[in-house]
């Protein structure tokens, strides 16, 4: 595995290449993928074993696994190095009594230590919970509290955003870097790692045991903890081959942060299950920096997102001067609609098609994709992978014919389907309200060739720069500000970011609607939640449209914004 492609899978890729799609679909068996894992024989399951240890045990320990760089560091780690570091951290966790089923969160920037920690957590059978480094106090607290995290790995710079006194269940905090004083109640990651043994027998699990949790937003309520199980590795491995097209000598770069699902499923699991060198670039996005990263490390397979491509497109030709991107063999995109003009621009700049892929936090891995060899229709998300059945359903669950718009749904189950919504079985059930199907919340249509075309969200979830934002979380923060009486939040279409967050606010008596107040309110959300959740636009209104039960009607706010008819107002307050 990893080194040599499994023959059966190789055949699948060729079938896709030959566009013999229906044959590939008919002949597809998940079991053919499962055969590639050591647990298929042994029954002993552990993601970190398959993604790291197995390569070492099979003689590939000296192969490069991680190529890390930022403005000051540049480091390479082999699979052997990853094994040693993750074993050590696994032993550190065990020393503090942490093991199977415990939730251990990570809140730190992308550095090698993040990856060692995450793999170490998995070795102990604990469930990893990576948090995006830009999260602020409330966002961090909500997630640690809901998940019942017992331990956290973080850095001195981020520690002040962790409200320890409000999190009694959080027993241990490991600090990466900096000084740890005896009475701080903190543990020093470096000291602990130095003292730990590099030998460890992983916790052997079943395919139904926990793997990872990612919090994501819906249109109502606080963010939901989407809990994935070990079985997901089957699909991570498979899509790594047939969609990412990973081959043994590839240098692969996924630009997503592990705080989001793309940054783990495709920034950790898919490349390492396939034994491929994985580039991680720390620091912020800049067109020049990204192109230099591709050139410097000879990136062959590159997975990024539409907003980034649009920004690269906007950065102009100068950014490409003196840059050699000829190493690129395969380019992919995820997270938001990929405009046809960006695809066509990619044809010219990267000398290949940007391959759009569709999936969600809840789905755990790619489901509808453009993959190597198939005819790409710019603007379409592609076709369901062999092994996946997708359809457009009406609200009662009837399958609709081509070109009818409706609910994009996936036939259940598939290997990487979420295992539960943490602490919230009712929310979980909502996704499966139509028997035999997962309802995505996206609307789409299918054309006569079986290609799917994204149309929008059915709920009020906002997608800004590929980041999924729940209006409720933003509204809840807004009304904590002393000046805000009521707030309603919508996504406003934006050429670069897809959507931006716009807040409609009515003020409490005694506050005047000034520009300074707008800035202050935006800064307040930024400081509490994160920069990407802060409204870029605020509009003050005397009154917001509400239902008689007091719910703000975002639909009407959106209609105001887009100058559309307000629709059915029969439930409005007055
Ligand atoms: O609306 C769809 C959009 O992003 C949502 C999922 O967001 P998240 O859970 O954050 O996962 C993002 C990365 C897996 C979907 O419900 N989305 C994702 N991919 C696409 C997309 N919209 C259009 N085209 C896509 N390729």
Automatic annotation (TrEMBL):
The keyword ATP-binding applies. The lineage of its organism: Bacteria, Bacillati, Bacillota, Bacilli, Bacillales. Pfam families: AMP-binding (PF00501), AMP-binding_C (PF13193). Signal peptide: none annotated. It is an enzyme of class 6 (ligase). The gene is acsA. Keywords: Acetylation, ATP-binding, Ligase, Nucleotide-binding. Residues 473-551 form the AMP-binding enzyme C-terminal domain. Residues 58-414 form the AMP-dependent synthetase/ligase domain. InterPro entries: AMP-bd_C, AMP-bd_C_sf, AMP-binding_CS, AMP-dep_synth/lig_dom, ANL_N_sf. GO terms for molecular function: acetate-CoA ligase activity. Its EC number is 6.2.1.1. This is acetate--CoA ligase.
